[in-house]
Amino acid sequence: TTTKVLAQAQQQQQKQAKLRHGGGLWGTMKETIYEPIIQPATESIVTKYNDLSDEGRFVASACVGFGASKVAIRATVNT
Questions:
Q1: How confident is the model at residue 39 (pLDDT cuts 50, 70, 90)?
Q2: Do 19 and 28 form a contact (C-beta atoms < 8 A)?
Q3: Alpha-carbon distance values, 1 to 13, 14, 15, 17, 74 (Å)
Q4: Residue 27 burial by CB count (10 A; 0-12/13-18/19+): exposed, middle or buried?
Q5: For residues 66 and 27, what is the distance between their CA atoms, to the nearest angstrom?
Q6: Is the pTM here over 0.85, yes or no?
Q7: Cα–Cα distances in Å, from 8 out to 11, 14, 24?
C-alpha cells in the first residue's frame, strides 16, 4: 500500500508540474482566462493610456470614474 500511495502522489505531482501555476482553480483560471485574454488587453490599454497627453489622461480618467460611479450607484439603488 505504501508504494501505491507513493505512486499516486507522484502522479499528482506530475499533473501539477504540467500546470505552471501548480493546479487548482486559480492556476487553471490564470492559464485559461487571465494570461491569454485579460493580460494582453490590460497591457494594450496601459500602453495607449501612457501615450495620451495630460488632458487625454484626465478625460479618460473622468470617463472611467463617471462610469464606475454610475454602476456603483445603480447597484446600490437596485438592491
A1: confident
A2: yes
A3: 18, 20, 21, 24, 59
A4: middle
A5: 34
A6: no
A7: 5, 10, 17
